[in-house]
Design a protein that fits this description.
158 residues
């Protein structure tokens, strides 16, 4: 499709809102009193200190520079899904860490998924999740996300 035929609509998420979300996420994890210093993140990711510092400024600041996707992904790989989720929330999404490719094996994965599904079916039998079931189902949901991550990982190595 040529550019003159494309929709003349603004993007769903502006560049400024995207920058602000990334900036806020970086500030949660990097800086004085935070988990990591700029230097620690730079050394761990290969992203220059100055690039990180510029990405942590306000959009209106003359020092502000948008971070390149490769640099952002390098930082995300180091800081993990908690960091990534902070800026993905802008797109109503979240991140999850993928398990090691060899854990668990196919048989164990199938058995674990079947057990979790059976737990949900038993809890849903009466049509209501009571307080105790909700507590247990929260753990089941977290395990199911990990199981899904294992299946996504299969695609990545296959």
């Amino acid at each position: 499709m040529s550019l003159d035929q494309s929709a003349n609509l603004p993007p769903l998420i502006s560049r400024e809102r995207g920058h602000d979300a990334v900036r806020d996420a970086l500030r949660l994890f990097i800086g004085r009193g935070r988990r990591y210093s700029v230097k620690q993140v730079s050394n761990a990711t290969g992203v220059k200190d100055r690039v990180i510092e510029c990405a942590m400024t306000l959009a209106a600041d003359p020092e502000c520079r948008s971070i390149h996707i490769g640099d952002l992904l390098s930082i995300a790989g180091f800081l993990g899904p908690e960091f990534t989720t902070e800026w993905l929330l802008l797109a109503q999404q979240a991140a999850v860490a993928l398990p090691d490719a060899d854990e668990p094996g196919p048989g164990q994965l199938a058995a674990d998924v079947a057990d979790d599904t059976a737990t949900i079916v038993r809890a849903a039998r009466d049509g209501v999740f009571d307080r105790e079931e909700r507590r247990d189902l929260k753990a089941v949901g977290a395990r199911m996300i990990l199981h899904g991550g294992a299946l996504v990982q299969l695609r990545a190595i296959g």
